[in-house]
């Protein structure tokens, strides 16, 4: 089966389609084909001996594809984890880094070439199946294997249960994800939050060709993170319900990678019928994305589910009021006293969407309530800014590099003690 996958990648190369890494062929396969490969590859995973080679140095082999979602949540989290490990003076070998303009070069310059005893795979569970079949079990064998994964629903498909045979433990960014994975996992699952850093300098709206005289609501998303889950059209609908075509306000929808998703892009553009809504369809570096957040007045996310919610946390760090669905991974840091939580009901998926199976549950945010909150923030901005200050303090306290570094160091020390001869 691995030969079949390699053949697919070679075909993609022949036609000039994305092929820089084993995971980039996903966008050109429909969901039925992806599910077919998931099932076939998952069946072929067999248990490792779990005999760790204790002669290997206590160092880390860091497997990730930083060219995928490099400016989005997954890529941002990958970069941040590498930085934390480096700041802890833990030698790491970046085994799987792709060339990309937004990857900090210092992450690769400090990497050395050795075979450490610990593997950390910063890659989602679905991609890990393919990764295993492409690189072979030798990479996993005789090592202590950790996967840092994001998962957005409160249940995990049993389809992926064999992945646990490859790992010794799982790290995940939120308690929501931890509970979901732990409900199926046969191995320990730990919450290791990401580092959230605020922008260190001010930005100007003219940098993004945005007006200075309007109150700006903002939502950002990547089409590769699944259009239905991000639910951008709900933000548009709530804004229209709250303000109509009021020219004193502007809703900015920042999106990326729409070219691969023409049907979803058309759905978004159909929803945008008013002159006070603008779509920015482009890819920014992570730093530039934070600059955009910095020039808005309020960040709004009516997601159906989040594994963590990076942009929400970054907006809070920037002292922006946030209006968000009161559900999933963001509930680790969005509370009634520091954010505006939108009511919701849980509904089943009507079809398979990406890795999310039909019948699984996610949130359906209450658009009327969202519109009321948007109106409140606009009408009572001083109160909203006061609440936002509590949000910024919370992020600063619990998601700083020192605290996250301490959690990682404690966990790695425990692993070191457990595998000592």
What are the main properties of this structure?
six-stranded parallel beta sheet, 2 domains, 421 residues, globular, Rossmann fold, 14 strands, alpha/beta, 16% strand
Name the CATH superfamily classification of the largest domain.
Glycogen Phosphorylase B
Low-confidence stretches: 17-24, 97-113
| Number of beta strands | 14
Shape-level CATH architecture of the largest domain:
3-Layer(aba) Sandwich
Radius of gyration: 22 Å
Structural class from helices and strands?
A: alpha/beta
Distance between the termini: 37 Å
- Class of the largest domain in CATH? Alpha Beta
Strand order of the largest sheet: 2-1-3-4-5-6
Return the average pLDDT rounded to an integer.
86
Helix content: 25-40%
Estimate what percentage of residues fall within beta strands.
15-25%
The tally of domains stands at: 2
Return the string of H and E elements.
HHEHEHEHEEHEEHHEHEHEHEEEEHHH
CATH topology assignment of the largest domain = Rossmann fold
Pfam families: Glycos_transf_1
Domain Glycosyl transferase family: 203-343
Protein name: Glycosyl transferase family 2
Keywords: Transferase
Detailed description of the structure:
By secondary structure, this protein is α/β, with parallel strands linked by helices. It folds into two domains: 42-47 and 56-195 and 401-418, Rossmann fold, CATH 3.40.50.2000; 205-398, Rossmann fold. Helices cover 38% and strands 16% of the residues. It contains 14 helices and 14 strands. It has helices at residues 2-14, 31-43, 73-87, 105-109, 125-135, 175-182, 227-230, 232-243, 262-271, 286-295, 310-317, 367-379, 381-398, 401-418; strands at 60-64, 92-94, 118-122, 144-148, 169-172, 189-191, 215-222, 249-256, 277-281, 298-301, 322-325, 340-342, 344-348, 361-365. The strands form three sheets. Strands 2-1-3-4-5-6 form a six-stranded parallel beta sheet, with helices on both faces. Strands 9-8-7-10-11-12 form a six-stranded parallel beta sheet, with helices on both faces. Helix 9 (262-271) links the parallel strand 8 (249-256) and strand 9 (277-281). The chain is globular and about 65 Å long.
